[in-house]
Amino acid sequence: MAESLQKRTMSQEKIWLVITHIGDPKAAFLLVFPFTYFFSKRAGLAVLWVAAISEWLNLVFKWMLFGERPFWWIGESRLFVNREPNVLQFSSTCETGPGSPSGHAMVTAAIWWVVVSTLGSFLYSRTHSVVLSAAPYLLYVVMLVAVGMSRIFILAHFPHQVIAGSITGFILGVILSRRVPEGRPLLFFFSVSMGLLLGTLLLHAGLQQLGVDLSWSITLAKKWCSRAEWIRLDTAPFSSLTRDCGALLGLGLAQYWKPGGWSLPWAPRALSLAISSMGLYHINRLPLPVRPQGLFYSLFFIKFVIVPQVVIVLVPGLVYLFTHKKKKD
């Protein structure tokens, strides 16, 4: 399937890579969260909550299911000795975690369910048109198919991994979006963040004690990736873990500093969105030292603690002070 996709659509390579970047779990925190938050506070908090929990569950599933990835399985399976598939790898191909279920498909299905259900309800409340309010759900299906095909195109996943991720993500999106921890105390978020972090580390240590080598996928990724520079530490399983736990703690801190967030009219909200997006872009581009790995993961954790502070507290607060002062003047 990947060979056929590459053969027929190689001229659209850049489009596939853009789609796979949009489906990256990281985009849920840095792109979808701020856009959704300034449209609807509750939906924005739900996106961050659902993204963190669904990506954490995806990590646990991957450790349990030992899914292969096509880019290394082609060589490891030895089924293609006589005829090598005519396929290429890309800069986004060489992820180091196990392959099943697809994290891109799972997190995309979970967070975009929050977005489209909010948008669908908003459109119906304004227009009372079933057809118009159903449009976001159609776009949701198109997006899931596009993200799934982009993952197959770049040899990151098999079709069954994409389907499993999409179905699991959809179920999580429906369940978790009904239980958004809005207005919960800081202790709740601290407990959830540290509980997930310590629980996962204990699970990792326990599986290793049982003789399970959880670094097997990293070894294979390094062995079969076309270019060494495409192996990045921010695609490793522990990067997902620290991102999720950091974002959850950051969400708790943001609600602690400013319960309920800042109330802004539409124009200041748009300005806040623009400034927040620029701020998160530069935060994401901050280079982190990859050695020692403990330092990298600690700084990666702090980076995602900062993300909710920027979107919920700092930027809207500055915009509020500026616009409020201007009105008083």
From TrEMBL:
Recorded metabolic or biological pathway in which this protein acts: Carbohydrate biosynthesis; gluconeogenesis
Record-annotated Phosphatidic acid phosphatase type 2/haloperoxidase domain positions: 43-177
SMART domains found in the cross-reference section: acidPPc
Main location: endoplasmic reticulum
Gene Ontology terms for molecular function: glucose-6-phosphatase activity
Keyword match Calcium: no
Membrane topology: Multi-pass membrane protein
Enzyme class: hydrolase
A GO biological-process term: glucose 6-phosphate metabolic process
UniProt: substrate binding residues: R69, R151
Subcellular location: Endoplasmic reticulum membrane
Sequence intervals crossing the membrane: 46-66, 105-125, 137-156, 162-180, 187-207, 295-322
Gene Ontology CC entries for this record: endoplasmic reticulum membrane
Record-annotated active site: H104 (proton donor), H157 (nucleophile)
EC numbers, comma separated: 3.1.3.9
Family: Belongs to the glucose-6-phosphatase family.
Protein name (record): Glucose-6-phosphatase 3
Organism in which the protein naturally occurs: Dissostichus eleginoides (Patagonian toothfish)
